[in-house]
Amino acid sequence: MINEILNSITFIYPELAVSIFLLIIVLVDLVFHKDKKYIPYISLAGLVITGILVLNQIGITHFAFVPQLSAVKKYGMMTIDPFGSYFKLLVVVTSILIIFFTIASEEVIDLKERLGEFHALIYGMILGMLVMISASDLILIYLSLELLSLSSYVLAGFLKLRERSSEASLKYVIYGSVSSGLMLFGISIIYGLTGSTNLYVINSLIQGPQINLFTLSFSSILMFVGIGYKISAAPFHFWTPDVYEGAPISITAYLSVASKAAGFALLIRFIQTGFTSFISEDGYWTLIAVFDWQALLIAISILTMTLGNFSALWQDNLKRMLAYSSIAHAGYILLGIAVLSNQGLIAVLIYFFVYMLMNIGAFYVVMLISNKTGSENIDDYDGLGAKAPFLGVALAIFLISLTGLPPTAGFIAKLYLFIALIDANMIVVAIIALLNTVVSLYYYVRVLKHMYLTKSEREQENITPSIGSLVYLLVLLIPILFFGIYFTPIVEFARSCVSLLGI
Amino acid sequence: MIELIYLTILLPLLGFVINGFFGKKIGNEKVIGLIGSSTVGISFVISLLALIETINLPVEQRTNVVELFTWMSVGSLNISFSYLVDQLSLVMALIVTGVGFLIHVYSIGYMHGDKGFYRFFAYMNLFIFAMMNLVLGDNFVVLFLGWEGVGLCSYLLIGYYYDQKFEKGTVAQAAKKAFIVNRIGDFGFLLGMFLIFETFNSLNFLEVFSQAKHLTGAESTFGFIALFLFIGATGKSAQIPLFVWLPDAMAGPTPVSALIHAATMVTAGVYMVARASIIFASAPVILAVVAVIGLLTAVFAATIGLVQTDIKKVLAYSTVSQLGYMFLAAGVGAFSAAIFHVMTHAFFKALLFLGAGSVIHSMHHQQDIMHYGGLKKYMPVTFLTFIIAAFAISGFPGLSGFFSKDEILWFSYANGNFVYWLLGALTAVLTAFYMFRLVSLTFFGEERFSHDKYHPHESPKVMTIPLIILAVLSVIGGWIGIPEVFSGEHGNVFHNWLAPIFLDAELKLAYYGAHSHTEELILMAISVSAALFSMYGAFKIYTQRREIAEKFALKFKKAYMVLLNKYYVDEFYEATVIQPIQKSSEKFLWKIADNKLIDGIVNGTAVVITSFSSVIKKMQTGVAQVYALIMMTGIAAILFWIILSL
User: Fold this and answer.
1) What is the ipTM of this complex?
2) Which residue in chain A has the smallest CA separation from B72?
């Protein structure tokens, strides 16, 4: 037993590093009471170390924490595989970008006293996400999801004095607890049916004939609701705009990328490990005949992208518009899973990498502008192209990439998604997604119209970003343009990371 | 050096980046000119070393692929940036970088004092970059990128003096014309590419050609591929019916005309046909079309050249005519003769343009040869080199043009028929005539310009030295391709060098006509003596008896006017293509299709979407209980669906 635990520890170095730095941040926060300006750098250092540890894990495939008691085969509570490492890397890189984000964000700078808590909570989220990505046991899944959620509830309402922020936090809590309650309900039923909480064991048990299909479907749906709320899939997405609008913008960006990525990783692992009976040579998954997962996923994804895009059409607040846009993107990504093939999975991995760059970028520009103007309203973007040429061009590129037009990486992401759909003969679905993209063009380009074609009514001073912000934006912009033209590297990397630890 | 061939592509790109982005800051003409020409010069040296290395390899190892990186790999489509270094691409690379280098150096003098000096060199470097991609790419996609790239540079450089007038319109209009006409050809090329991918499931040269070699019985497919590719070639290489842009391209600076519109870019079509020789050889009908179009273009353009009075216009029509020769050669299956003429033509035509540039430079941008005359004593070097080039292009025995032109004429008879030869020889006679008309009116006779306004002088050394080098090449450049009738069995070095590339195509075409050397010598004697007579006649008429030419023009006034107005082709296109398109796009496409139909659909859709989205908006009430209610309804709906489907 002890041996197994000691042995397993070598596979969770990234999680351990995050936990240790979480403690360090709390301690530093307590000891250096007066001066907290070093805390962001400590958390950056921790993330860099975590990132290196994750990089070392790429390519490794292994179970960790295998219970000695299990009589059948040895399945662990955690699964280390290239797929998980890809998402962990994504989460760590996103976190690093977000820490830099907070350094420039005046909302966060104003916190001063509470900076330590802020970073400790972010670390709580990271720990939750990393464990969630690897978890192959329902109990661990639930625990990590709760850890992630609890930290995000607090962070969403971190600007205590702002009414909207508190409202956001409260809604998030209520909605989150309902969902996690439903999920827990689902888990308990699955345990009741199979007598196990391990996804691998569940997979082998539900292949037998004695399982009650309706009960199993019911519990799976409840699980799906819990995850669906995390990835803000319709109709479980209603919290998203309110929370995204109320939360500090850095946290909004973080929630829209990292926590969504972890949620998607969990969904993919849940379906692939729990329900796949075998994977054909050309990469298509055959699922155990419980119910039609594919139809459900397609329906949910179309509903999600349509609701997201159509609601975004009339938003005048950019933060809220980007919130809806992130819902729509969740819909596209869900389609990649709905293909139920490795090709679709590659598309999802590519999409998330690109989505991280362009979404954080768009939020960053919105943050910089609201730092200056104190507003996220689209009318305040009038004539911005002339007053802040660099920010204008940067935002334009991010939005064009979000739309999915060449020569940006956003185009490549959508291209691979559509290729996967068409290869799987899901032409109608592809057309619906394409039409949705057309709708999204409207609200993205509307911002450009305000920036470049509408003259501002009131006089405003020029906005010149600091050197740091300039570098930050370039770091995001260059890959978007570069991978838009030469995309083989990310495709190859995603292809090498597509394998999950099978049965 | 073969594996470093990518440097020949990257260096000009580097030059473009430096001059294009920092040229304005650098400001110093010497530095900019040095960067611009040295990058091309080094590329030339690398190409030369690669050539030497390739020569030292055994014949079967002379085809090398240098792979840089995979650009994209989607399904069965695999496109990589890799370069094919073989006998053909090396010849082209040497022409592009060698002649390109000389023209870059020349431009330092020619463009001196121009406010856009850095811009000029940046575009020129970008052109070399694109052209090298075109000739070295190992698949159709890289070739096409280069193809489009040279088109873009051509557009930018024709429109270099974008704020000035040109003939009836503006320089910008001339540039647009070149671009649009080229796009028509490019469309054909794209269709050809798609069809190639459809047929062979690959766009890689070596794969496609080795498949094409064994594929039999698909004549109509090959026919369509070849036809589409050839449409592309007629655009880029200014053949009937898409030649109209090249004369207008003379609106650009003269070095541009020399480099892009004479020596390199316009020969891209010939290169492409030669590269895809196996495809064309598999479609004999289209090959005949190539020959006929080439021949017609050659005669047609040469006749226009007889009466033009703008020095650059004469040379432009001469280029169109010579390009026709090259297609004639390709069309009768003499691909190596076509490439040989590409090379010799690059030497003497670049020289003619640069010489013309030197004259224009010293005559304060006066381009009308009726206002020249007697310039030989003012600019001896320009005169001497120009007349060497004129002898070369007219096919004076022993000079480069003689060997390449004679080879084409011979193959047009041996592989083609007597009519091909006759029209080809006629073109040679016409060429000799208009070239010596040009020489006589420019350098001989009385001075027809006022000394108050013009002060002709010799150009600086930086311009004359490239002229001298090109003159030497125009003389000796043909000696590597001396026909077998003089050099004996397997004595044609150039032909032997390229033979492995065209072997498959020639086997497929199987021309084994029995023709004797005597026949060849007789035909050669006839065409050469006719050309010599024509040269002498033109010289006599335009130096001493100009009234003969004037009388002649008066007597055949109608024919003269037709030629002077270039057969009214531009007017014909204006009336049959441009006007109808403009009218119908205004009356129908704009006022009905766009304003009513498309706007109607768009606005209608927008109304529907707006109303739909306002319904959705109402769901987002901000009340948490409602959210939970919708969520529960959603779960219930899913469960209901599962119950129904179980």
Assistant:
1) 0.87
2) A488
